[in-house]
């Protein structure tokens, strides 16, 4: 019989002050319980109880032992509960990196859902991350999950498609294209464009460049920026037009209108990425929540 089990027997007898009632609670025979308590006393080298024919009382040593025994058993029980919650993915720390369009359109709903579904998981978010930054952060472990725009050229990462977002044109309200109900890619010829930075290996920079070249012209890039909020702010200032995923339209600023980009119909993928060696339960629980919310 281990010491923890002896402690549990001792605490039960101390609570009942009677071997018979304690034995009933423990679903064991009274003589067997009495024998286990005597073994505990022998192991400790002290008397824990003063016994009479009607009841038992704690000795001074027993009173001192009871306080510590209760604390130890409570700690052991809490450790067991914590282990079960961890195995179920209910506790842990989670850091999620998000591209700009997710930061403004999905992050509020996602943070609420994770808080509701995984209240014991400490969630942190890093917004306005370019894909190259997210990949590096996944590699070094500074984020656990990434909501990004593929492709991702890293064999150590798993990428799962969540959905496809159509592209729209963010247009200054005084621009000629603002009067259109929709914008064709060819309409961007000779139009100043604001794009995400090529130096920081932005996925959207490659998308815009490919769209324009497929339409037969080179994009006229006026500004390159690192953050989606800055990009839309420059559009609002009348400095150019931007091609962005539709969720960015949640970032409503005075001076900007959003128009569907058509001919050809255009869209970009949104995916969740994580390292192949991440097998923590809370990471996979969070993945389930993300798929339910975004991939529905």
UniProtKB/TrEMBL annotation:
Domain of life: Bacteria
Pfam families listed in its UniProt record: HTH_1, LysR_substrate
GO MF annotations in UniProt: DNA binding; DNA-binding transcription factor activity
UniProt record similarity statement: Belongs to the LysR transcriptional regulatory family.
InterPro entries recorded: LysR_HTH_N, LysR_subst-bd, WH-like_DNA-bd_sf, WH_DNA-bd_sf
PANTHER family: HCA OPERON TRANSCRIPTIONAL ACTIVATOR HCAR, TRANSCRIPTIONAL DUAL REGULATOR HCAR-RELATED
GO cellular component, one term: protein-DNA complex
Segments forming domain HTH lysR-type: 1-59
Alphabetic keyword roster: DNA-binding, Transcription, Transcription regulation
UniProt entry tagged with the keyword Transcription: yes
Annotated protein name in UniProt: LysR family transcriptional regulator
């Amino acid at each position: 019989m281990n010491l923890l089990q002896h402690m549990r027997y001792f605490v039960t007898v101390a609570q009942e002050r009677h071997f018979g009632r304690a034995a009933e609670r423990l679903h064991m025979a009274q003589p067997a319980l009495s024998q286990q308590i005597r073994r505990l006393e022998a192991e400790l080298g002290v008397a824990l109880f003063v016994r009479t024919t009607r009841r038992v009382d704690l000795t001074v040593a027993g009173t001192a032992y009871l306080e510590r025994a209760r604390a130890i058993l409570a700690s052991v029980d809490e450790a067991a509960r914590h282990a079960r919650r961890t195995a179920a993915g209910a506790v842990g720390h989670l850091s999620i990196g998000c591209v700009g369009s997710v930061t403004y359109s999905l992050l509020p709903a996602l943070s609420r859902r994770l808080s509701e579904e995984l209240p014991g998981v400490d969630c942190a978010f890093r917004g306005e991350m370019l894909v190259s930054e997210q990949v590096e952060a996944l590699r070094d472990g500074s984020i656990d999950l990434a909501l990004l725009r593929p492709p991702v050229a890293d064999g150590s990462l798993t990428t799962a498609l969540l959905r496809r977002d159509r592209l729209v044109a963010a247009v200054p309200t005084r621009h000629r294209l603002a009067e259109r109900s929709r914008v064709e890619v060819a309409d961007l010829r000779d139009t100043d464009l604001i794009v995400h930075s090529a130096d920081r290996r932005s996925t959207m920079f490659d998308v815009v460049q490919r769209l324009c070249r497929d339409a037969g012209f080179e994009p006229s890039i006026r500004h390159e920026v690192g953050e989606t909020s800055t990009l839309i702010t420059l559009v609002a200032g009348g400095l150019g037009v931007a091609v962005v995923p539709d969720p960015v339209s949640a970032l409503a600023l005075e001076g900007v209108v959003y128009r569907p980009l058509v001919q050809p119909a255009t869209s970009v993928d949104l995916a969740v990425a994580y390292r192949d060696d991440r097998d923590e339960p809370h990471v996979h629980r969070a993945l389930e929540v993300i798929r339910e919310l975004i991939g529905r």
